[in-house]
Write a structure and sequence with these properties.
The radius of gyration is 31 Å and the shape is elongated. About 55% of the residues lie in helices and about 5% in strands. The chain has two domains: about 5-130, 3-Layer(aba) Sandwich (Rossmann fold), CATH 3.40.50.2300; about 160-335, Hypothetical protein af1432. The relative contact order is 0.08. A five-stranded parallel beta sheet has the order 2-1-3-4-5, sandwiched between helices. Helix 2 (about 35-45) packs parallel to helix 3, helix 6 (about 165-180) runs antiparallel to helix 15 and helix 12 runs antiparallel to helix 13. By secondary structure, it is an alpha/beta fold. The chain has 15 helices and five strands. The two termini are about 55 Å apart. It has helices spanning about 10-20, 35-45, 60-70, 85-95, 110-155, 165-180, 185-190, 205-210, 215-225, 225-235, 240-250, 270-285, 295-305, 315-320, 325-335; strands at about 5-10, 25-30, 50, 80, 100-105.
Length: about 325
């Protein structure tokens, strides 16, 4: 591999020794002060830096601190080359991120060995980082796929297997984006939304698909899907699964406190659950169910608007109302 080594030193004799030791094996760039080093590194990243400590102007410690505080340059190996031998100075260098010290007067054999070792280690670390990132992507994909499949399983139980969870997830994303969510928080909500009714897996088919009005006992059983869903998911520290658990538990709470299972009111209800409540009810209204025919879009939007401050967060209702064109587009793309 063709490596580039940056030499930063104001001593001509030290530079000559370093050049002589390394020029056959590496591309060399040479500067004589810290300020020049920072400028040249901004333009093109070296693979390793040999950095003198005592220089006029910005010293080596200051240069190293700047590099280690920058995401782009923090992983470049820095080896201090110095006549300073005090233990305190060595500790200072290692504490700010240097990987090694080479003492002056410089020994060419030592320089070659140290540079080769640390370039090899840095290369191995990069390879390991790539493998970890790829493995993390695979694990995240598996986790997301599992979340989606559990959501689909719940929809099969409820006889709403079409594109319900896809539409609800996308509606949630539209509301979250418009409301000012960060890209990461919006993505998490979209990924967690399909899990909201997973507890329905445990509810009897005869109740879920009953064409007529539910009895008090049957309605009580249906409401248990929120607490059952939380038990199915279990407790997790993973951000996606923690969010899913919150949504499962709270998406039937109402702004005025008349919802279930806990009777939470207003901002006691998690914001993600308040968003999902609007998306879920709207999709239920605009699509046929075993107990009802589909409503028109205008009827459904009007219902959501009129229930702001009662069932739904009034601020989110306004946001939702401003997204009619986008909501229509999602519905038409994923129509059953």
């Amino acid at each position: 591999m063709d490596y580039t080594v940056l030499i930063v030193d104001d001593n001509p004799s030290a530079i000559e020794i370093l050049k002589s030791a390394l020029h056959k094996d590496y591309n060399l760039r040479i500067v004589t002060n810290g300020e020049m080093a920072i400028e040249i590194i901004k333009k093109s990243l070296p693979d390793l830096i040999l950095l003198d400590v005592m220089m006029p102007g910005m010293n080596g410690f200051e240069v190293c601190k700047i590099l280690k505080d920058c995401v782009k340059t923090k992983d470049i190996p820095v080896i201090f080359v110095t006549i300073m031998s005090d233990v305190y100075d060595e500790n200072e260098g290692f504490n700010i991120g240097a990987v090694d010290y080479i003492a002056k007067p410089i020994n060419a054999v030592t320089v070659k060995a140290r540079v080769k070792t640390h370039l090899s280690l840095a290369h191995q670390q990069k390879e390991l980082d790539v493998q970890v990132r790829e493995k993390t992507k695979e694990l995240n994909k598996s986790r997301i796929d599992l979340v989606k499949q559990l959501g689909i399983a719940a929809e099969y139980k409820d006889n709403e297997i079409g594109n319900h969870i896809t539409r609800v997830s996308k509606y949630c994303g539209l509301i979250a984006d418009k409301y000012g969510y960060s890209e990461n928080d919006s993505s998490l909500l979209v990924l967690a939304a399909p899990m909201h009714d997973v507890g329905k897996i445990a509810i009897e088919d005869r109740i879920l698909n009953k064409p007529g009005k539910l009895t008090a006992t049957e309605w009580k059983r249906v409401k248990e899907h929120t607490t059952i869903g939380v038990k199915i998911l279990g407790k997790h520290e993973d951000p996606l699964l923690k969010l899913a658990s919150s949504i499962i538990s709270q998406h039937h709470e109402k702004w005025d406190g008349t919802g279930y299972p806990n009777g939470y009111k207003g901002t006691e209800i998690d914001i993600n659950s308040r968003i999902l409540a609007i998306a879920d009810v709207f999709d239920a209204l605009t699509n046929k169910r075993s107990y009802k025919e589909a409503w028109t879009f205008e009827e459904s939007f009007e219902y959501i608007s009129n229930d702001g401050g009662h069932h739904f967060d009034p601020d989110l209702v306004k946001v939702f109302g401003s997204l009619k064109r986008e909501i229509y587009a999602v519905y038409n793309e994923f129509i059953d």
